[in-house]
Specification:
Helices cover about 45% and strands about 20% of the residues. The chain contains 13 helices and eleven strands.
């Protein structure tokens, strides 16, 4: 019902629903959270709905997607909530349209099994995909939450493979990445998992540029939401598909599926934004005078101050 109401509002302003020739470029990362996008592309579901969508995957994570949004390479990004808030408050011309997943993401803290580092030591060198990425922000947030000295030495590695190379060659001591994406490295004995750190807020948001086609974005999200609901309703089948697509163990995917709730709706509670900004201030990622009002962070007139569940 909310979608029809918003669509009606936009249609009255911009005209009847027509298929746009312009490609809607949407970014994500090559992880299981984004399987609905891959699946819909493979099945042609979005195209059948008259949507001209190109889903792009960024191995550099939220940091890379932020740069793509700034440069005009992307229109929409399903990126980490904390990264989007930080970038918006620092002046990036993006808005948070809504929530992609309504559940938290569990980060693992990893070190090389061959030469393990001490977790939380002030001299620890953290590998990060990019400055401003989730692996960078969460290293600072984790230190703040544990009340230990914040790391100062960050080694930019661009991707998971780059982190493997850095830890193997002793160029970095620690690396934080999503638990299930990196679990195969623990299973193989290459890495040790020193800790698990869940985000205290919904992990992925939907960020858009000022010029993004919002009606088409909402329609695309509706398609993705329906596909994600079908996956959640059939976890045994979904686990087999996802395990095959991302080279994971079926048992691990089943465990993960029980913890994730796809949202893909224009909902972003004010309480979530407040918690994120307070945490970013405490971690010295933002200063208090950089924080923007809620209304300047979300997409006005579309984003709703609540989660649907």
């Amino acid at each position: 019902m909310w979608f029809r109401a918003i669509q009606k509002r936009w249609s009255s302003t911009f005209g009847s629903r027509t298929v746009s020739k312009k490609v809607l470029r949407i970014g994500g990362v090559p992880e299981h959270f984004f399987y609905p996008w891959r699946r819909c592309e493979q099945k042609g579901t979005l195209e059948k709905q008259g949507l001209n969508v190109e889903f792009r995957e960024y191995h550099g994570g939220s940091g890379a997607m932020t740069e793509a949004l700034k440069s005009g390479e992307l229109d929409v990004a399903c990126m980490l909530t904390e990264a989007a808030v930080a970038e918006r408050c620092k002046g990036a011309k993006i808005r948070m349209l809504g929530t992609y997943t309504g559940t938290s993401l569990v980060w693992g803290v990893y070190t090389s099994a061959d030469h393990p580092a001490i977790y939380g030591g002030p001299q620890s060198r953290y590998a990060v995909s990019r400055l401003g990425s989730g692996s960078h922000l969460m290293a600072l947030i984790d230190a703040q939450q544990r009340n230990v000295p914040k790391p100062r030495d960050f080694i930019i590695v661009n991707s998971l493979q780059g982190a493997r190379d850095a830890l193997r060659s002793d160029q970095a001591d620690l690396f934080m990445w999503e638990k299930f994406t990196s679990k195969f490295l623990v299973d193989s004995g290459e890495w040790l998992c020193l800790a698990e750190v869940p985000t205290p807020w919904p992990s992925f948001c939907i960020a858009v540029t000022d010029g993004a086609d919002i009606p088409s974005t909402l329609r695309a999200l509706s398609v993705i939401r329906e596909d994600a609901a079908a996956l959640s309703a059939n976890p045994d089948v979904a686990a087999i598909e996802i395990a095959s697509e991302y080279n994971q163990k079926i048992a691990d995917v089943k465990t993960w599926l029980a913890t994730v709730a796809w949202c893909a709706q224009p909902h972003m509670p004010k309480s979530v934004i407040s918690l994120v900004t307070d945490t970013l201030i405490d971690a010295n990622i933002l200063s208090s005078d950089q924080v923007l009002p809620y209304e300047d962070i979300i997409y006005p007139g579309v984003t709703l101050d609540r989660l649907p569940f």
